Each structure stands twice: as structure tokens, then as C-alpha cells.
Amino acid sequence: NPRLLPLSKYANIVNFTTGGQNVTFEAGKIYNVNVEIKPQFMHTDLNPVAYNITLTINREIFIFSVTEEDTLLDVIREKAGLTGTKQGCGCEQCGACTVLLNGKAVNSCCVLALQADNGEIETIEGLESPNELHPIQQAYIDEGAVQCGFCTPGMIMSTKALLDRIPKPDSSQI
Predict the structure, then answer these.
(1) CB within 8 Å of 74: residues ≥ 6 apart
(2) Contact 108, 119 (CB under 8 A)
(3) Which long-range contacts (CB under 8 A, 24 or more apart) does 157-162 make?
(4) What is the pTM of this model?
(5) What does DSSP assign to residue 71?
(6) For a disulfide at 70, which of 45, 113, 122, 146, Cβ 3.0-4.6 Å?
């Protein structure tokens, strides 16, 4: 049996040659290879492995069916229909996707849904009451801190996490 090398979440490299020679791959080198691809049928779009998870989002309990590849952001936006949390960079750099998971600010684009199972999630939609904005939201508006608005929900959630932890932070704690 050849050693399987991951190609993507849908297939593995099962055989490779370069000029008829077997190759030992070394980090940092580029190879010209002929590749035979064998699908991993358990992990294709036709037959994904599904898991049920329970999340409390904005004080409401949900049960979702997710796959191993689903992120918390995917679940929040696509399955729960809460689109205030934004997809920005997708690599934990910009913070547009920030939500609170068990009271801690996390970049939901890089948290797998399975990792959040039984977690308590708070999104930007969970901050406001029916009659008024959360004080942090109002402060952003009053100070003109909304910019274009795309990443503002993530910044507000990060601010909330900080103020929940340290109600009166000094500049070194911010």
C-alpha cells in the first residue's frame, strides 16, 4: 500500500512518480510529479460525515448537523441565519468574525463547529435589546467609530470581551 499524502479534504495522493523514479519529498523543494488521485468517498460532498452539535447562541439553544470542515462562522451565518458576524480574511487576522465563545473573544472563521459543541455563543445580534442598542454599540455610533461597518461587529464583540473581563481598563490593558 502506498502512503497516502493529503491533497485536499476530498482526495489523497496515492501514487507519484517523476521521470519513472520514486521520489522522497523534501521540505521547500519543488517537484514535477505525475499524480494518481483516489477520492476519499467518506469525505466527499456526496457523502459527508455529519455530527450533531448543540450550541446556545444569544441565549437560544440550537442543534445543528455539521461536518468536520464546518467552522463556527459557517454555522452562525448559514445555519443560524445570523449574518451580523462577517467573513473577512478567513485566517484569524482581521477580527471581522469575532464572537464570544463561553465568554472569550474568538475568531469564528478558525474555530471548527465541532470544537464549539455545547458552547455558549454571543454574536452582535445578541447585544441589542428590542428598544435600544447595547451601550458599546451606542458608544461606537456616538464616537463615529463605525467606519464602513463591515468589521464593526467584530470590533464591538472584542470590546465587549475586554470590558467583561476588565470593566475599567487602562491604556496598557487595551
Answers:
(1) 66, 113
(2) no
(3) 157/98, 157/99, 157/100, 157/105, 157/122, 157/123, 157/124, 158/95, 158/98, 158/105, 160/100, 160/105, 160/122, 160/127, 160/134, 160/136, 161/98, 161/100, 161/103, 161/104, 161/105, 162/105
(4) 0.71
(5) B
(6) 113
Rounded CA gap, 174 and 164, in Å? Answer: 13
Residues 44-100: tens digit of each pLDDT: 455 678 899 999 999 999 999 999 899 999 999 999 999 999 999 888 888 999 999
- DSSP state for residue 54 in the 8-state scheme: E
Q: Are 28 and 39 spatial neighbours (Cβ–Cβ below 8 Å)?
A: no
* Residue spans of alpha helices (H) in 50-166: 72-74, 135-142, 152-165
For residue 100, what is the enclosing H or E element?
strand 98-101
Pairwise CA distance, residues 160 & 103, whole Å = 9
Query: How long a stretch of residues is the chain?
Result: 174
Which residue type is seen at 151?
C
Cβ pair 140, 146 in contact under 8 A: yes
CA pair distance 87, 56, nearest whole angstrom:
21
Given a contact cutoff of 8 angstroms between Cβ atoms, the answer to whether 103 and 164 are in contact is yes
